[in-house]
Specification:
Keywords: Amino-acid biosynthesis, Histidine biosynthesis, Hydrolase, Methionine biosynthesis, Multifunctional enzyme, NADP, One-carbon metabolism, Oxidoreductase, Purine biosynthesis. It contains ten helices and eleven strands. The protein has about 290 residues and is an alpha/beta fold. The structure holds 5,10-Methenyltetrahydrofolate. 5,10-Methenyltetrahydrofolate binds next to helix 2, strand 4 and helix 10.
Length: about 290
């Protein structure tokens, strides 16, 4: 069994990005600048956005964090987005999800300039992804592809079962794994909350990508020997014995499933850090495209 070490690989990627930034500096060019908008005070969201800002500092990017109160109206948020669209200093930006209920997420995603949409959530970019055109691939799926690639995991002709059909992980992941090339060329089954007898499907899987958000959902009995297990779940479970008062828990019963798996991602330290590294990568690409 091999652990797909997202912490290590994301560090390698950050080092590669730092080297690119150093070259930009040496040429006297402007370094990439990522902005993030966060609306409200959700603890987990604030943590993730904080990690993104810290990661920018680490690789030598500039970053801007725009904090808006949870009472922000849709119009105010759209106005802010248009400002960032027009700000020539900003190469890419993200609007942290989820948004408060008074704001229509679809409208927000449509307002982001596709050339600055480093999350890859705009329908133009999502469509390009589905059609194999070059674009920003959403950071979490991009991170999973990168992990599979760097550990030389064979995906060709394999049965990949994706659990969860979210717009930011499950749905794009199902498309990417079925695309031509590598990592891809898989036969994909996309399962979700209406799927019947899911264990019957997961036990047929060579590769399982679980993006459900239900702690310890995937048990050893649901997995065949030598399967590749990608755990995208990140749920905070209260734990008084832990200094933070919670532990981060994945969708996979790691202790038991890891005994059967050929490759498996841990939580934390798997897909999460890769997401941040690939957001940086997309921002670097955005800068390079704007310069070109
Ligand atoms: N517009 C937008 N883009 C996103 O990419 C986006 C988003 N909204 N909303 C929320 C989700 C979630 N997400 C994570 C990023 C890093 C970790 C991460 O670094 N996790 C650490 C643990 C972090 C912790 O201690 O909480 C790990 O797995 O090792 C997790 C989750 C990005 N998301």
């Amino acid at each position: 069994m091999t652990i797909l070490d997202g912490k290590k690989v994301s560090n390698d990627i950050k080092n590669e990005i730092t080297a690119e930034v150093d070259k930009m500096k040496a040429r006297g060019e402007k370094v990439p600048h990522l902005a993030a908008i966060i609306v409200g005070n959700d603890g987990a969201s604030l943590t993730y956005v904080g990690s993104k800002v810290k990661a920018c500092e680490r690789v030598g990017f500039e970053s801007t964090l725009v904090k808006m109160p949870d009472t922000t109206s849709e119009l105010e948020l759209l106005k802010k987005i248009k400002e960032l669209n027009e700000d020539d200093n900003i190469d890419g930006f993200i609007v942290q999800l989820p948004l408060p209920p008074q704001i229509d997420t679809q409208k927000v995603l449509l307002t982001v300039d596709p050339s600055k949409d480093v999350d890859g959530f705009h329908p133009e970019n999502f469509g390009k992804m589905a059609l194999d055109m070059s674009t920003f691939i959403p950071a979490t799926p991009f991170g999973i592809l990168e992990l599979l690639q760097r550990y030389d995991v064979d995906t060709k002709g394999k049965h990949t079962v994706v659990i969860g059909r979210s717009h930011i992980v499950g749905r794009p992941m199902s498309i990417l794994m079925s695309r031509k090339g590598w990592p891809g060329n898989s036969t994909v089954t996309l399962t979700h909350s209406n799927t019947k007898n899911i264990a019957q499907i997961t036990t047929q899987a060579d590769i399982i990508i679980s993006a459900l958000g239900v702690p310890n959902f995937l048990k050893a009995e649901m997995v065949k020997d030598d399967a590749v297990i990608i755990d995208v779940g990140i749920t905070r479970v209260e734990d008084a014995n832990h200094p933070k008062g919670y532990v981060i828990t994945g969708d996979v019963d790691f202790e038991n499933v890891s005994k059967k798996a050929s490759f498996i991602t841990p939580v934390p330290g798997g897909v999460g850090p890769m997401t941040i590294a690939m957001l940086l990568k997309n921002t670097l690409l955005a800068r390079e495209q704007r310069r070109a």
